[in-house]
Amino acid sequence: MLSPNPQNKHPEISETAWISETAIIVGDVKIGDNVFVAHNAIIRADEPGSSIVIGDNCNVQDNVIIHALSNSEVIISNDTSLAHGCIVHGPCILGQGCFVGFGAVVFDCSIGNDVLVLHNATVRAVEIPSGKVVYDGQVVTKQDIVEDLEDITADLAKFKSSVINANIKLVDGYKNLAQEA
């Protein structure tokens, strides 16, 4: 379901994106090329002055919530993967090639390129430089904790790429099904 917000701002979605019929997208939301938005995802820029931008080749999996507070924005850069049930809350910037795992929460933060926030982790009110990993269940709410984050490993980089590639294939698969119907 696509709908305007109370300020009458409407979502703008690339023709090459695939959006599930059960996804809800409200307000000042821009979705780029080859984006996959799965079932029951909620993407809301409905508060005054809020906006959400989702770059190209991203995936927003089942039950993900993306919301921006008044006068804030959420920017999700290209090639980023938001896994099942995570919450991305603005103000928030996710760099290119990031992965946010199952049930993770990111809020009021800036995350560099190629960062993995793994399952059930929480990241709030910090800046994370590129190439770092927040491990399963880890809580990162103070900048001094960021200094101790480990660098991404080759295995995790490969995992991240495989998730992005799998979801780009889903965009094509679902679009082909729609054309056949």
Q: Characteristics of this structure?
A:
2 helices, 8-stranded mixed sheet, single chain, UDP N-Acetylglucosamine Acyltransferase, domain 1, alpha/beta, 181 residues
Topology, please?
Elements lengths: L1 E2 L8 E2 L4 E2 L4 E4 L1 E3 L4 E2 L4 E4 L5 E4 L4 E2 L4 E4 L4 E4 L4 E2 L4 E8 L4 E2 L4 E7 L4 E2 L4 E3 L2 E2 L3 E3 L4 E2 L2 H4 L3 E2 L2 H27 L1
Parallel strand pairs: 1-4, 2-5, 3-6, 4-7, 5-8, 6-9, 7-10, 8-11, 9-12, 10-13, 11-13, 12-14, 13-15, 14-16, 15-17, 15-18, 16-19, 17-20
Antiparallel strand pairs: 19-21
Description of the molecule:
The protein has a single domain (2-180), classed as UDP N-Acetylglucosamine Acyltransferase, domain 1 (3 Solenoid), CATH 2.160.10.10. The chain contains 2 helices and 21 strands. The longest helix is centred in the last third of the chain and has 27 residues, at 154-180. The chain is α/β, with parallel strands linked by helices and 181 residues long. It has helices spanning 143-146, 154-180; strands at residues 2-3, 12-13, 18-19, 24-27, 29-31, 36-37, 42-45, 51-54, 59-60, 65-68, 73-76, 81-82, 87-94, 99-100, 105-111, 116-117, 122-124, 127-128, 132-134, 139-140, 150-151. The chain starts with a strand and ends with a helix. The mean pLDDT is 95. Strands 1, 2, 4, 5, 7, 8, 10, 11, 13, 15, 17, 18 and 20 form a 13-stranded parallel β-sheet that branches. An 8-stranded mixed β-sheet has the order 3-6-9-12-14-16-19-21. The radius of gyration is 16 Å and the shape is globular.
